[in-house]
Amino acid sequence: MSIAAAARAENLRREIEAHDRAYYEGDAPTITDAAYDALFRELQALEADYPELRVPDSPTRRVGGKPMAQFAPVAHAVPMLSIQTETDTGPSGARDFDARVRRELALPDDAPPLEYSAELKFDGLALSLRYENGVFVRGATRGDGLTGEDVTRNLETLRDIPLRLRGPAPPLLEVRGEAYMRRDDLARYNEKARARGEKPLVNPRNGAAGSLRQLDPAIAKSRPLRFFAYGIGAVEGWPLPATHGELLDALAAFGLPVCDQRLVAAGWRALADFHDRMGARRARIPFDFDGVVYKVNSLALQQRLGFRTREPRWAVAHKYPAEEARTVVTAIEVQVGRTGALTPVARLRPVFVGGVTVAHATLHNEDEARRKDVRVGDTVIVRRAGDVIPEIVGVAREERPFAPMRFQGRETHLAARKTLSAAGIRIIPAPYRKRMPRHPAFALPETCPECGSHIVREEGGAVARCAGGLVCPAQLKGALLHFASRRAMDIEGLGDKLIEQLTSAGKVATPADLYALTAPMLASLERMGEKSAANLVAAIEKSKQTSLPRFIFALGIRHVGESTAKALAHHFGGLDALRRADAAALENVPDVGATVAESLLDFFAEPHNRDVIERLLAAGVRWEENRGRADAPPGPLAGKVFVLTGTLPNLTRDEARALIESAGGKVSGTVSRKTDYVVAGEDPGSKLDKAKNLGLAIVDEAGLLQRLQGDSQ
Ligand code: IVH
């Protein structure tokens, strides 16, 4: 053998391994694919020329090789047992296990607490890895516990599994553990699979099991499989440590992956605590686990406890409530939120999942409902993890109910058949037999299910909304609270409690109804004295005299805040001109873009809203029109648009705004090219960055005061 070849092979291996590590651990390739392949092929060629250079842990062993005809059976020298499951998901699961163990060991009540090892119960596929003199020689699935399948070729492609153990190794060591997939790896894999037009993997568990049962190792290699060691099988020539905890440490020292989320502690409370803690972190741990496993820590005690049929007495799996369950969709309803957003919600046949009974699941929005193609009558998989809103993760399409044949155009078909055969044309039988689903694909209704107003969709947005902002019961409380607020109609004393009372008693269904309230009617409400009733009526009466900007703002039109309302009032001078304006006219107003214009048009297009406005005017709500336009003195800041950001040293926001407006300027909430000045105080927000990007004039409080005096330097 050439010494140069041996040295080169060693260098190549080291280099390839370093690139592998960078790729698999850091997820960042340090070399191009082509350059990597070149290194790899060079090593393969060297090993082909000099077979004595082939070491058992050469990366060339990870290529996978040819597909196998079948998996050879492997008899496990030490059976692969299962674990007893503790289905009580509360803390008593841990207490009962401890009590059982203490009883089996005949410990007196006052004996000190027993020491346990606690780890996660990985949700994947159990494996046994055989290492002879430190070299990985065979890997097998659990099978029935006595005989498994030889999946060595597939496991060789799995980076987590060392091909050679680190340090001095025993003549024989069988490592037991679990192959699994991380959720993020699976998502990434599925994204690529879909892009290639392949079928995605259903979930991490099926992904792991399915990948190892592939006869073609190249497929296993393409899947993001990982491994955790949690125990041992047959061992020769290795003195066992005294405890399970130390055993796991030893496996980790051999270079085997051992999960960090583990604990050695005395007494059942520590176990129950671990169960709780890990349960709370379930969503943040990147792989699935369906419970935790407790094991008696002392191997000597494990031996004393022994087995009951196929389960050790020294271990238990303490489960978590299942997060997924199957059930049937009984209806799809549309809910209207406080902002008018429409959400399709699937009503479900109640099912126990994630620790609670679930009777409905969100479908988020119309696009999502259509993408998942959930229909009434479908059998679905529901997921509820932690406090997350229950979700439908998938539909069992093969169980979708079909429409009875008679509804599937049989009449038409028979008529056509008659005509055709009369014309002497032979008919291919039964095209109508193409079976049709019983229920159609989901579509949002055309009008709001709460109030019948029309539904609008913001450009590009997935969200559909009810346009009946002033009349929709779902939006009513929010609309009233806004209508009455200080900067809108300023009705003193009309807070959320009172609004709750008025709406649930059916006394107020739109803001216009407020003006029909009388003191005796109010006094009949609970916790409402005559005096407060009279005060409220007076406050409502007083609010009738308002200003156009306040009135526009009070309508609660989406995207129309206080400053936009002012700009609109100023620009149009009166309500009628605003109501009649088209998109182009609206977009002429400073600060009004396509979104705001669309929102205004949608609002005024809704007859229910127009009706409420008429009723408000009829009730006596009034203001002086054209004031802002005709009568205002020009002022030193006439026509200038300001944006305020951060805290000013002396002036409050309201004071700064009042000063600017009294000088003829306008204050806007958003920075745009139409902005003349950005007034920046302490801790300014992103508005300042945007202003800098746009190259706008930025002033501080002193600068503002100067300009208020008409001094623009
Ligand atoms: S110990 C003698 N530890 O659970 C006990 N098993 O029913 C042998 N599992 O499919 C198993 N995580 O693969 C043990 N930390 C863990 C585990 C674990 C998952 C699986 C195991 C087997 C099942 C046992």
Please give a quick description of this structure.
The protein is of the alpha+beta class and 713 residues long.
CATH class of the largest domain: Alpha Beta
**How many separate domains make up the residues?**
5
Number of strands: 24
- CATH level-4 homologous superfamily of the largest domain: DNA ligase/mRNA capping enzyme
How large a portion of the residues is in β-strands, by DSSP E? Answer: 15-25%
User: How much helical structure, as a percent, in the residues?
Assistant: 25-40%
The average pLDDT is 88
Classify the secondary structure makeup into a structural class.
alpha+beta
Main beta sheet strand tally, sense and closure: 5 strands, mixed
What CATH architecture of the largest domain do you see? 2-Layer Sandwich
Distance between the termini: 87 Å
Extract low-pLDDT stretches.
Answer: 627-632
Strand order of the largest sheet: 2-13-10-3-9
Enumerate the distinct ligands.
2-(butylsulfanyl)adenosine
